[in-house]
Amino acid sequence: MGQEEAPLYEAVKEYVKRDMVPFHMPGHSQGKGAPRVLKQLFGAKFFDFDLTEVSGLDYLHYAHGVIRKAEDLATELYGTRSTFFLVNGTTAGIHAMILSTLKKGEKIIIGRNSHRSVIGGIIESGGVPVFVQPEFNEEFGIITNLTPDSLAKSIKENPDAKAVLITSPNYYGFQGRVKEMIDLAHKHNLFVLIDEAHGAHFPFNTKFPKSAIRYGADLVAQSAHKTLPTLTQTSFLHVVSDKVNIDRVEQVLGLIESSSPSYIFMIAMDIARREMALHGEELWDKVINISNYAREEISKIPGFKVTSSAIINGNDINAFDPIKITINVQELGYSGFEFESYLNDCNIEIELSDLQNVLLFVTLGTRVKDVDELISVLKKVPAKKHKSSVKLPKFPVASRFLMSPKEAFDSEYETIDLLESVGRVSWGIVAPYPPGIPVFVPGMEISKESVWFVDEVFKKGGLVQGSINKGHSIMVRVVKR
Fold first, then answer.
1. What is the pLDDT along the chain (481 residues), one digit of tens a residue?
2. Do the Cβ atoms of 132 and 112 come closer than 8 Å?
């Protein structure tokens, strides 16, 4: 087998040619029973490939045939010990990393900037999180990364910790000093788990930051769908070191992932892997050139401030992903939320907005004409009378845990007004989204600072997941007294 092959895709294609008479799921029977509207929407051929584990097509959770061959090619390409296809997104990969290395009652050191899926994995494992506060970029109002110094302090204070989970790069493309933190954790015999959801493309062009795979992390989870030419919900879990028990990883994935995996998802990963192996460097060169063009042109427009490699400071930001473009819109008097609405009205869709910025991804599908259309819209943006004073407050430091996350989540809860929740124990996860960083965590005492932070984001138009909207205020769930 070579990287020019796509074994799973080829096997499914050959199976479809056989025109088998189906007496099995899914219920549309290779499109024969699919509603006409769906056939018109997706095309009849789409349903031919929406198969289950039929003869010759292997089993995701007992892969020893064509799925295993496809995963082995991904393993070879990424340079790992083993790479698993994920059909439940990177959330499944993060849960698997935690459940494969952490047992009930054991500590895991995590960044306060961890995604909500990290807390979900900790709840499932029965583990105990220890939070480390990330740095904060005042200019753009963005939570960045942990530093080796802050991690070292936490490791010293928690000598009984079992693992470290680092989120890097962040949503905005800022990568921290990952190698130093991995080496530091390994020096203390800790498992190192990396949430590299936004870095699946890193290995395929030298202009990108290096992947944590190259820096020797034990387990790395990546969202293939975020940057590679594949389908939403497809991800990779990479086992990198000999320290990890692969049998346990396989068993965990069998427990938490769907037992009816989508062959369309898996085929997409197989083909995307081949595309990256054969053409990755040249494809990404084009994308980076388009991104640099966009950044340069946007920077010329008065009122906009754009992130670039100049943001690298060698402390909390050690590398920068050039395909991520963050535009600060405060000079023109807008919040990021307001500006996203303005762009939507002009037929421009973006990745996310926050209180001060909008974030754009330049992808393999972005064309120069798309950038030119964006530039044309940005040049016509009317400035407001006053500069926006809306700013993201510093992310609140984690308060103490009065119960473990699992203990709290297993408790009865009641729903109360956010402003009345100070001093109570959070029952659920409350996270402004995107990027989905939890402010309240099950078992954590709710602090005055965290209530104020959530209230500020909500009042300025942000979406707060885990809360209940009640007009001009929100309700949260707390452990019942």
1. 799 999 999 999 999 999 999 999 999 999 999 999 999 999 989 999 999 999 999 999 999 999 999 999 999 999 999 999 999 999 999 999 999 999 999 999 999 999 999 999 999 999 999 999 999 999 999 999 999 999 999 999 999 999 999 999 999 999 999 999 999 999 999 999 999 999 999 999 999 999 999 999 999 999 999 999 999 999 999 999 999 999 999 999 999 999 999 999 999 999 999 999 999 999 999 999 999 999 999 999 999 999 999 999 999 999 999 999 999 999 999 999 999 999 999 999 999 999 999 999 999 999 999 999 999 999 999 999 887 777 877 899 999 999 999 999 999 999 999 999 999 999 999 998 767 899 999 999 999 999 999 998 898 888 899 999 988 899 999 999 9
2. yes
CA count, 13 A, side-chain hemisphere, 28: 17
CATH 3.90.1150.150 positions along the chain are 277-379
| H helix runs in 60-176, sequence order | 66-78, 89-101, 116-125, 148-157
Positions of CATH 3.40.640.10 in the chain = 61-257
**Rounded Cα gap, residues 40 and 23, in angstroms:** 24
pTM here is 0.96
Q: Can you name the CATH fold of 61-257?
A: Aspartate Aminotransferase; domain 2 (3.40.640)
d(C-alpha 318, C-alpha 144), whole Å: 11
In the CATH hierarchy, which fold is given to the domain comprising 405-479?
Ornithine Decarboxylase; Chain A, domain 4 (3.90.100)
Please name the CATH architecture into which domain 277-379 falls.
Answer: Alpha-Beta Complex (3.90)
Give the angle subtended at the CA of 476 by the CAs of 474 and 478, to the nearest 5°: 160
Q: Which residues make up the CATH 3.90.100.10 domain(s) of the chain?
A: 405-479
For residue 162, what are its two tokens? 């079992």
Q: Which two tokens stand for residue 137?
A: 């970029």
Q: Is the torsion defined by CA of 329, 330, 334, 336 positive or negative?
A: positive
Task: Give the other-Cβ count within 10 Å of 438's Cβ.
Answer: 28
